[in-house]
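Deliverable D2.4 — example input (structure tokens):
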């Protein structure tokens, strides 16, 4: 059983999509980040970085429960566990590159753009414009890459598509 620590935001949504696509059994455990539940000692033992998503796999290899945190790490872990959505072996370098592009670029810039536009108590035009420009640049990179393609990598639906979807779905708000 996968214990899935979740809040309805883009990164947990990627993992939810994977779990639903594969049909892996999981138990959803809501974490209300608006109330600061991600800072509770019990959750910090699962993710010391106090972020969702996180999972605990009680059926991990070796027979002991394993924690995995960060959406990209979870997608890679679950893909390796199930053998699903990794695409062709020959496409793996490209898959990893796009996963890291999303994890280290698109995702953080989208998160900061949304925060400074919608969450910050003080509206800082420099920060809003900075993050908005970077989000636009990252979306343009994706748009160019996807032109004439059905999938992020190769000719199969992979965890790269799932990872991008988490933020593409939220583009209007970002």
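Example output (designed residues):
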């Amino acid at each position: 059983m996968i214990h899935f620590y979740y809040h309805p935001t883009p990164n947990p949504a990627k993992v939810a999509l994977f779990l639903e696509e594969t049909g892996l059994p999981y138990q959803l455990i809501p974490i209300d980040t608006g109330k600061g539940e991600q800072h509770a000692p019990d959750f910090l033992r699962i993710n010391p970085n106090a972020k969702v998503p996180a999972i605990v796999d009680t059926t991990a290899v070796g027979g002991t429960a394993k924690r995995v945190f960060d959406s990209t790490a979870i997608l890679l872990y679950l893909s390796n566990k199930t053998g699903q959505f990794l695409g062709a072996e020959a496409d793996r370098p490209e898959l990893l590159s796009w996963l890291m592009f999303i994890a280290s670029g698109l995702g953080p810039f989208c998160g900061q753009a949304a925060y400074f536009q919608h969450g910050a108590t003080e509206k800082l035009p420099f920060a809003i414009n900075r993050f908005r420009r970077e989000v636009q640049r990252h979306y343009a990179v994706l748009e160019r890459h996807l032109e004439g393609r059905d999938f992020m990598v190769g000719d199969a639906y992979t965890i790269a598509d799932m990872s991008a979807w988490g933020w593409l779905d939220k583009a209007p708000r970002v």
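Residues 97 and 160 are 9 Å apart (CA to CA).
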